[in-house]
Hints:
It is a single chain. This protein is an alpha/beta fold. It has helices at residues 18-21, 29-35, 49-62, 74-77, 86-101, 117-121, 129-145, 158-166, 178-202, 229-252, 320-331, 349-368, 411-422, and strands spanning 2-5, 11-15, 67-71, 105-111, 151-156, 211-217, 220-223, 254-257, 261-264, 275-279, 282-287, 296-298, 337-342, 373-379, 398-401, 406-409, 424-427. Helix 7 (129-145) packs parallel to helix 9 (178-202), helix 8 runs antiparallel to helix 9 and helix 12 (349-368) runs parallel beside helix 13 (411-422). The protein has one domain: Glycosidases (TIM Barrel, Alpha-Beta Barrel), CATH 3.20.20.80. Helices cover 39% and strands 20% of the residues. An 8-stranded parallel beta barrel has the order 2-3-4-5-6-10-13-14, surrounded by 6 helices. A 3-stranded mixed sheet has the order 7-11-12. It has 13 helices and 17 strands. It starts with a strand and ends with a strand.
Amino acid sequence: MSVFQFPDGFLWGAATSAHQVEGNNVHSDWWAWEQAGRVKDRSGPACDHYRRFEQDFDLAASLGHSAHRFSVEWARLEPAEGQWDDEALAHYAAVVRALRKRRLEPIVTLHHFTNPQWFLAKGGWTVPGSVEAFARYVRRVAAALGDQVRYWVTINEPIIYARMHYLQGLGPPGAKDLSQAIRVLEHLIRGHAAGYHVLHAARRMEWPRPEVSIAHHLPVFRPCRRWSPFDQWITRRTDQIFSVAFLEALTDGRWEVPGIGARRIPEARNTLDYLGVNYYGRQFIRWVPVPGLWPGVPCDLGHHPREVPERTSMGWDVHPESFFEALRRLGRTGQPILVTENGTSMTDDARRWSYLWRHIAAMGRAVQAGANVIGYCCWSLLDNFEWADGYGPRFGIVEMDYATQERRPRESARQYAEVCRTNRVMTE
């Protein structure tokens, strides 16, 4: 065992998203989806974080955190098209002040899977007008929060959003259409670019320089059947489309579309000030041609007992070495990397800490190998509403009793606090 010391000023924290913790987000498309019975649980009051945010930030500060990632809820700010709720905007300004008061660096996400209901009714991200609607919203947030916020995430996991909502049908509007998913991805690229330019243009001299990125879901893809040339090919293609192409569009303005070719999106060129990364595990891909859908689908990890000896309570792969690999891969770009999410749902908290510790150690080895990682946010501060999976999964380092709204820091939270306070980790 050895000790790795992270660089001075390294950011340590946890992440949340508005709909998953705030509660009663009644104007969002996900709220309407839940009320229609499309998922097993309704978010309801969730963690009541909208009212209890100061209590939660006290907890984060007491656990040694120096940063906190949260999202602003567009549906609260613009519940009807062109109608703005100034009280909601003042609320998020108070959230940022509360973080600054506790010396927690705010990392603000502008879109985390949810949209206003009116926006979806007009076609959501499938229509070109979505870009200007998003830019208009970002202008409001930038004017209200820009004097206190340095780190911005325009869109959380755009690839996952398009896949979950427009290929798998697991969230509103429940589509299963590859052509719609492609349109959504193009508009998300343009939406990010618009948000990036708005945030930089809004800056005043005395404000922090905005550092803007996306939170990019970056699994490591492996072929389901190593002997199959079809699985090998679709795995490489899946990696190109899901891991590489979106980032390429935001660096050189060129986006490769499957079956269509390359498109130029010049306004997206050089719109990443850092690389925001969400990492959870590997995905094993199998060739399954389905008309109208992407032919690469994840295969059952139970078929790989030797390669996947450990899984989370949700059946996800546990493989810290692939986290190291993903960070090394991004590190070759030379850009700063902020780990915007990494964590696990475990019924056994000792296994939760084992997961977190091994991934933090892998991150330390990536830094030693030259990756410019500047911070780490575990997912999540609190147990929360996990979209189509409802309230079953438990990702929080702080346990939630949803009946009483009591918060109870787990032992993993205390062990993570030691890493945060000392800025170091034991490595194997």
